[in-house]
Design goal:
Elements (H helix, E strand, L loop, with lengths): L5 H29 L2 H17 L4 H12 L5 H22 L10 H6 L3 H18 L2 H24 L3 H24 L9 H9 L2 H4 L2 H18 L3 H13 L12 H6 L5 H23 L1 H8 L7 H26 L11 H6 L1 H27 L5 H31 L5 H25 L6 H26 L1 H14 L1
Helix pairs in contact: 1-7, 2-4, 2-11, 2-12, 3-4, 3-6, 4-6, 6-7, 6-8, 7-8, 11-18, 12-15, 12-16, 12-19, 14-16, 14-20, 16-19, 18-19, 20-21, 21-22
């Protein structure tokens, strides 16, 4: 699978990733403007609970990307196996929700949400196949997912006022649409036979992709911990809205989308060094934009969430660190070859990066969730709900820093990484300079109108102005930007 084009897939992934941000924002606006704070918090809880059972999905999906990227024909085996695994996941989910007995939670809604689990299992498996085959297909499927959500949400949530039930049905229909799209795009890979021996191998090695999910369980437990200790889902609404704004920064990592499968297929290590500079190019303006538009962004979601501005500002550095943590971890996993060797033993896997990297993450999230429990326990009775959410964000940022630094040192050693900091400094200064006048203009002229249909177009023009200024400045002062723009035009042609 050495035919994977890193720049092409990265650019396509980024462009469609940003497109999904816009469509996702529209959906979020529909949700936040039509749900109460408690209902929105319940929806956030559903997301957290379903993520617990999705941790068993990589038993198959983890190996799927690695095998497909190396040219092995296992698509049908992986898809059918993962679909069967979703039945077990539904059973686990129904057991988990028994432990939530807060009066503000409707258990019938939690039970109904179980329909999302098998859909998400199949969708994620198809995405795993796509990443190993043509990485940008994963982002295209996300665009399909988001586009279908908008009219469906308008009908079910806005016009029919179906509340959370409407959101669940909307997500289900969108998920199925994404599945149909991916099946159409990769159907040529599904002509192979179901291989029992391959499935046995994955099950035998199932402990390895499950092991990192211990970290996922710890990380996603923050939602449950907050709900249980505070006895409310109101704070989850502040948390979710703040993450909706700061989360747009994560799309800058999509430019690095094809590096992992390219390394798996034997690509040169130098591609990481080149792509990291591109990641910085997109990370800085998105981060500054999240900072500048935190207040109007939260207001657009719902005026009651405007109080969460400090949470957004704290989550911005946490999100930046998370981006590079993921990039470094994926790159190190991409050069690991222990799973290629048939004679590899359990001890070999234990010594490999495939085991070591998740161990670091488990340690990180153990510290994260322990710190959150302690802080919430001692402050819940004396602090406001928004203050508790701020403490939560601070803990997330602090616990991300050590692992980012450690993995950076590992990458420098393994890849002989030498990054030219001059263009990176240019990007940072350009981003700041671009958005300062936008911020000043917005503070003076932007009117906070409760009618979203009037407020959003006004806000959008400031957002566009900021990014156009950034593109213009960097195009003039940076040769890499000129090459990037030319490559984008070339790919579009």
């Amino acid at each position: 699978m050495s035919g994977i084009r890193v720049t092409y897939s990265g650019l396509i992934s980024f462009v469609f990733g940003i497109s999904s941000v816009i469509t996702g924002l529209i959906f979020t606006l529909i949700v936040t403007r039509n749900l109460t704070q408690t209902e929105f918090g319940t929806w956030s809880l559903i997301g957290g609970l379903t993520s617990y059972v999705l941790i068993i999905n990589p038993i198959i999906a983890y190996w799927t990307t690695r095998e497909i990227a190396r040219g092995n024909k296992i698509a049908k085996t992986s898809l059918l196996s993962s679909s069967s695994l979703s039945v077990l996941a539904v059973g686990i989910y129904l057991i988990i929700i028994l432990f939530f007995n807060s009066q503000s939670i409707d258990h019938k809604i939690l039970i109904f949400a179980a329909i999302l689990i098998p859909i998400e299992f199949v969708r994620r498996e198809l995405i795993a196949i796509s990443i190993g085959y043509k990485p940008h297909l994963a982002e295209l499927s996300a665009v399909v997912f988001e586009i279908v959500k908008i009219p469906t949400a308008l009908i079910l949530i806005y016009f029919l006022d179906m509340s959370i039930i409407g959101i669940i049905i909307t997500s289900a229909i969108s998920g199925v649409s994404s599945i149909v799209f991916l099946l159409f795009k990769i159907n040529n890979l599904l002509t192979d036979k179901f291989t029992v021996s391959q499935l046995k191998k994955w099950i035998k090695l199932g402990w390895l992709p499950l092991y990192p999910k211990i970290a996922g369980v710890l990380h996603n437990a923050d939602v449950a911990v907050f709900t249980i200790i505070t006895g409310s889902v109101g704070g989850l609404a502040y948390w979710a809205s703040a993450k909706a704004i700061s989360g747009m920064i994560s799309h800058s990592s999509k430019i690095n989308k094809a590096v992992y499968p390219k390394l798996l297929s034997g690509g040169k290590k130098e591609i990481l060094e080149e792509n990291l500079v591109r990641v910085f190019y997109f990370t800085f303006p998105l981060s500054i934009a999240a900072f500048v538009f935190a207040k109007p962004g939260l207001f657009a979601l719902n005026p009651i969430y405007e109080i969460a501005v400090p949470v957004v500002l704290i989550l911005i550095p946490a999100m930046i660190l998370k981006i590079f943590t993921n990039i470094f971890s994926q790159s190190l996993s991409g050069i690991e070859t222990v799973d290629i060797k048939e004679q590899s033993t359990f001890k070999d896997y234990i010594k490999s990066k495939l085991f070591f990297l998740p161990t670091l993450t488990i340690i990180q999230y153990s510290v994260y969730i322990s710190s959150l429990i302690v802080v919430l326990y001692f402050t819940v009775s004396t602090s406001l709900e928004i203050e508790l959410v701020m403490y939560w964000a601070i803990i997330a940022a602090i616990t991300e820093l050590p692992i980012t630094i450690f993995l950076y040192k590992m990458v420098r050693k393994e890849f002989s990484l030498k990054i030219n900091v001059i263009p990176i400094i240019k990007y940072l200064i350009s981003a700041i300079v671009s958005f300062i006048p936008v911020y000043l203009l917005m503070e003076k002229y932007l009117e906070y109108n409760n009618r979203i249909i009037e407020f959003l177009p006004d806000l959008f023009q400031y957002i566009v102005l900021g990014f156009l200024l950034y593109l213009g400045i960097t195009f003039v002062i940076d040769s890499k930007t000129k090459k990037l723009v030319k490559s984008i035009i070339k790919e579009l042609r």
